[in-house]
Design brief:
Blueprint (H helix, E strand, L loop, with lengths): L1 E8 L6 E5 L12 E5 L6 E11 L2 E6 L5 H5 L5 E3 L22 E4 L2 E10 L7 E6 L2 E6 L5 E5 L4 E4 L5 H5 L4 H10 L1
């Protein structure tokens, strides 16, 4: 389960700034063991030494990460706890990491599969949904949500008319028009 994602280095002693992806930030504490999952390569176990809030981020200092160059190896890593150490959720709540791989439906119409979940663009996280060569960003908002069945990897939503068209990738002609405008 992903608790945070490293967005940048912070300071000279190996600290990193993270984007928090949990509604329970109290989980971050000295001694917390996390797994750093890079975009490519193996996971790495880390131990939180210190942490503190700074602007929109949480700053983490890990044992054994003591320089900027060591901290740079953590950029864009997801910081995870093992599934066995997940906290209890309230009824009706879902871990966002469980949404990856689910198929999104707009009522009866299949849209595509959740590839990723992005945070920070607004109140609701954005589901990055791929369908053949298209990619959509769909707000995972309670107002649109009908049901979530994690066992069947199925999310049913009622999307506002035109939402997918607004998010649709540019066609070849549209890309050329955009280039001409520049």
């Amino acid at each position: 389960m992903t608790l945070a994602r490293v967005v940048k280095t912070q300071g000279r002693r190996g600290e990193v700034a993270v984007e928090v992806h949990t509604d329970v930030p109290e989980r971050f504490a000295p001694g917390l063991k996390l797994l750093a999952l890079p975009e490519q390569g193996p996971r790495r176990e880390l131990l939180v030494e210190e942490f503190w809030p700074h602007k929109d981020w949480l700053i983490l200092k890990f044992a054994g990460v003591d320089s900027i160059s060591e901290a740079e190896t953590l950029l864009r890593c997801e910081l995870q706890v093992p599934s066995s150490e997940r906290g209890k959720l309230r009824e009706g709540w879902t871990f966002t990491s469980d949404l990856i791989g689910c198929v999104v439906h707009d009522s009866d119409r299949e849209i595509g599969q959740v590839k990723d979940v992005h945070f920070g663009a607004g109140e609701a996280p954005l589901l990055v949904v791929t369908a053949q060569s298209k990619e959509y960003e769909i707000p995972y908002a309670e107002a649109y949500l009908q049901s979530v069945d994690l066992e069947k990897k199925r999310i049913v939503m009622t999307l506002p008319e035109g939402l997918l068209e607004v998010n649709a990738p540019l066609k070849h002609e549209e890309k050329n028009q955009e280039k001409r405008k520049r």
